[in-house]
């Protein structure tokens, strides 16, 4: 792909938009970011707060530890951390520099101040509305579509900032570079020809950050220690190492590790899954830095392509897209081209696409391991002359058509599944019996 091709510039910009640092699970961190930004507008720490959140936000915040809070979980903890100790200028690293006394202040704030949590009205999949009060002053701030997309700020009834139109219930990310240029063939063309200096810094940072948290997950006790279980019980074959290192990164991240990760499609778990297994294989095969960077970029862009049709949040586990993409990148590391990558993706998607998202929590690490396994299996199937064929289940002839099917499944077909998951997680049934 020539640099003069408009798609080249788009692909670089897509990576720039997606490969950003975050400390902690991105949904609670988005709440903390919004609270910190709203506090800046308010001019002081609020006396009370209200958080209105869409079901998928509630689902992804409920069970995950908010970093730098001393082990606190939940929407209230995220909002308090942002309002009391957050630095909005750090965006998704908003609570990365919380001092020891500030951790105590967060706990004190939770004990002595009201924070109401309510479901957001409407059908927007990604929606956070924060209202902060102090004396006679009130600030309202809304984040929608994706984690840093502040679309509205109001103080004392006066609109200070407004951006965007009515949001799509499908959760399509507005304000980002158009993703319609993404196809498997175009992505592979870009990755094979890109001037590495255009992407080196951001992809290398992803490798460094995400490998570091994977090492942390293996070195210490985090969550359910899925990484250690895989290593201890399954061995050291490269196929297992790829799974356990990715799982270990999630082990640490879901349980409050205070190391940043580089996210993909708004998710740190997806950022880890798209990169760490690829690095494991690159080191095993001794392909060198240049090939490694290209392979990780391939995995990132394939993940983004598959997630675009699904949306930022859904009942469809995001690790599936990243694990399948990692399998495609492994095919590339072994010297594969379009046919190898495309068939790997189809085989993997046919295998694992039923996995649900029931929020961020320690079991995400096990789901990541399963998704990476499906990606690797998809490649080894092709190497063995085996494949799932068009007309079998959700598989359609052609990788783009199959990816489109997955998009419809995750975005439309699983809407009711998503609602049912949220009802189960929030105890809606027990509240009505």
Structure description:
It is a single chain. The protein has 17 helices and 8 strands. The protein has 433 residues and is of the alpha+beta class. The protein has 2 domains: 138 residues, 2-Layer Sandwich (60s Ribosomal Protein L30, Chain: A), CATH 3.30.1330; 241 residues, 2-methylcitrate dehydratase PrpD. The chain has a 6-stranded mixed β-sheet with strand order 3-2-4-5-6-7. A two-stranded antiparallel sheet has the order 1-8. Helix 2 packs across helix 4. The N and C termini lie far apart (60 Å).
The total domain count is 2
The mean pLDDT is 94
Q: Quick one: overall form?
A: globular
Summarize the amount of helix as a percent range: 40-55%
Alpha-carbon distance between the two ends? 60 Å
Quaternary organization: single chain
Radius of gyration, in Å, reads 21 Å
Count helical runs.
17
Q: What structural class do helix, strand and pairing data support?
A: alpha+beta
CATH architecture of the largest domain: Orthogonal Bundle
Q: What do we call the CATH topology of the largest domain?
A: 2-methylcitrate dehydratase PrpD
Secondary-structure element pattern, one letter each: HEHEHHHEEEEEHHHHEHHHHHHHH
Identify the CATH class of the largest domain. Answer: Mainly Alpha
Strand segment tally: 8
Pick out the low-confidence regions. Answer: 166-172
Q: Report strand %.
A: 5-15%
Strand order of the largest sheet: 3-2-4-5-6-7
Which sheet architecture does the biggest sheet show? 6 strands, mixed
